[in-house]
Every structure is written in structure tokens, then in C-alpha cells.
Specification:
38% helix; 11 helices; seven-stranded mixed sheet; alpha/beta; two-stranded antiparallel ribbon; elongated
């Protein structure tokens, strides 16, 4: 009996599931056994781990995760792939297939400590914002290389932005491997990367998380301005102009009020938000 290579195996499974890769679902299936193994290895999971996989596809990563003995919650939105996965893993007691859209899932209802997946790139921002709010111990994920680099961008760099701030406030991270487009079917236009994140110790939670995200996004629209000037412009968009005088007085008391926004460390931006959040 001939052994199928990873691409042939994927093609066979897609035929069984009666699925053709659909751009609406941002489907790029990983076909490299080597990178699947590295992805799972870097997840640092064991039989006691509860792992969330976003975008299970045909279950290539799911299978590798299941073999670790960890408790796997595999999220998939495509109706036909949901049925295919349920049949494929029907005898795996440690695998639970959750047929839902990540954008409509209450993460608080899912008990997970780790994240390991090759998720849809089209909703990358939403996925990471949701995961940062929920929190996790460790993650090993495949993203477009440019997006992974943005998450780890340092203050003062061109790519430094709201997601960089959130990521680095909560996590230490590294890119462990760049992956060529040929490792996927269909092939994406850009290189991808395995990104590993590990929770920082003794980090305080951010009160009013969604409000903080809005604050960051608004402030970084004026990232090349000083903090004082950026706040002045941001207040118009945050509908907080009535407290402008009070807020600017608070900002001026900070030692870095004359620095440009994109030079501030994540901890400084959190401190700024906590100082003014009741006025905005």
C-alpha cells in the first residue's frame, strides 16, 4: 500500500469532506509534517494541558496535538469540515470539536491554558485581541511573518502599534521559524512564521480592557506626536473633550509627556491609560 505524502493526504481528506479551499474562510492548509511537529513541540504541552486550536481544518495539527494526551478543544467554522473532524476524531476522548466561529465564541466558556494552531490570517487582529483579553500560559501559532513581527515590534520601530503593546505587556515572545508559502495549500502570497508566546509573571490585569484597546488605537493614530499633543487630538475621537483640561494636567505631571507616542514602553502606555481612564 502506497503511503501518501502530506499534500496527497490533504487532497484525499478534502475530497472526503467535499471541501474546496475557500478564500472566505481564509483557508491555507499546512502540508509540512516538519512544521506541524515543530509547532506542537513549541507549545510546551503535556497530558494535563488544556489546548485551544483555532481553525482545525482537516485536523492535521489536531492529530499531532491529540497524540500528546492533552485535552484538545478544536475550533472550526466550516460546516463540512466540522462533520469531517467529528468523524475523524470520534474515538479520541481527549479531542472535542467545537463547531463555532471564533468571532462569536465566549472564550470564558472554554477552559484552556495553552493555544496551538495555524489559524485563519484574515481575522488575525480579532483572534489576538480576544486571546489577550482571556489570557493563556503559552501559545505556539502560525501567522503571516509580517503580522508576527508586528506583535513583537519594539518601541520606536515603524511597526510598533496597539497589538505590539498588548502582546508585550502580557507576554514574552519569539519567532522560532520562518515558513515558506510552499508549505501550505493553497500557497499564501507571503512567508509565514511560528510565533511562540509565554505569559510574563506578576503582570497586573488591565481594567476596562476594551476601553484600553480603543484608547490605544485612537492614540496611535497620532503616534508621531508628543503624548500631550496626541492626547489632545485623541480626546476629540474619544468624546472626552469636556475633561480636556483635567486630563492634560494629569499627562503633564508624567515625566515622558513630551515624548512621542511610539517611543513609549507598553508599561508606560498602561500607566497613562490608568491615570486618565476615569476621565475618558
Amino acid at each position: 500500500m502506497n503511503v501518501l505524502n502530506p499534500f496527497e493526504q490533504l487532497q484525499n481528506e478534502l475530497i472526503q469532506a467535499r471541501v474546496f479551499p475557500d478564500k472566505r474562510f481564509s483557508q491555507n492548509f499546512l502540508i509540512s509534517t516538519e512544521w506541524v511537529q515543530l509547532l506542537v513541540e513549541k507549545a510546551q504541552i503535556n497530558s494535563r494541558s488544556h489546548v485551544l486550536e483555532i481553525g482545525a481544518g482537516t485536523g492535521t495539527v489536531t492529530q499531532a496535538l491529540a497524540e500528546t494526551g492533552a485535552h484538545i478543544i478544536a475550533l472550526e467554522v466550516h460546516p463540512k469540515l466540522i462533520l469531517f473532524l467529528q468523524k475523524k476524531f470520534q474515538n479520541k476522548k481527549n479531542v472535542h470539536i467545537l463547531g463555532k466561529d471564533f468571532l462569536h465564541v465566549d472564550l470564558k466558556s472554554i477552559p484552556f491554558t495553552h493555544v496551538c494552531c495555524s489559524p485563519p490570517y484574515a481575522i488575525a487582529d480579532d483572534i489576538m485581541l480576544g486571546l489577550f483579553e482571556h489570557g493563556f500560559r503559552h501559545a505556539s501559532m502560525i501567522w503571516q511573518a509580517e503580522f508576527a513581527e508586528k506583535l513583537l515590534a519594539t518601541p520606536g520601530s515603524q511597526s510598533y502599534g496597539p497589538l505590539s503593546v498588548l502582546c508585550q505587556y502580557f507576554y514574552n515572545g519569539e519567532i522560532v521559524k520562518k515558513i515558506s508559502p510552499q508549505s501550505f495549500y493553497p500557497s499564501p502570497q507571503q512567508f509565514s512564521a511560528i510565533l511562540v508566546l509565554h505569559a510574563r509573571k506578576k503582570i497586573d490585569s488591565i481594567p476596562e480592557y476594551n476601553k484600553f484597546v480603543l484608547f490605544l488605537r485612537t492614540l496611535f493614530r497620532f503616534k508621531n506626536k508628543t503624548v500631550s499633543n496626541a492626547i489632545t487630538h485623541a480626546l476629540q475621537h474619544l468624546h472626552a473633550e469636556k475633561n480636556k483640561k483635567e486630563i492634560l494636567e494629569i499627562v503633564k505631571e508624567m515625566e515622558w509627556d513630551d515624548l512621542k507616542v511610539f517611543l513609549l514602553e507598553p508599561e508606560e502606555l498602561v500607566e497613562l491609560f490608568e491615570s486618565v481612564r476615569k476621565q475618558i
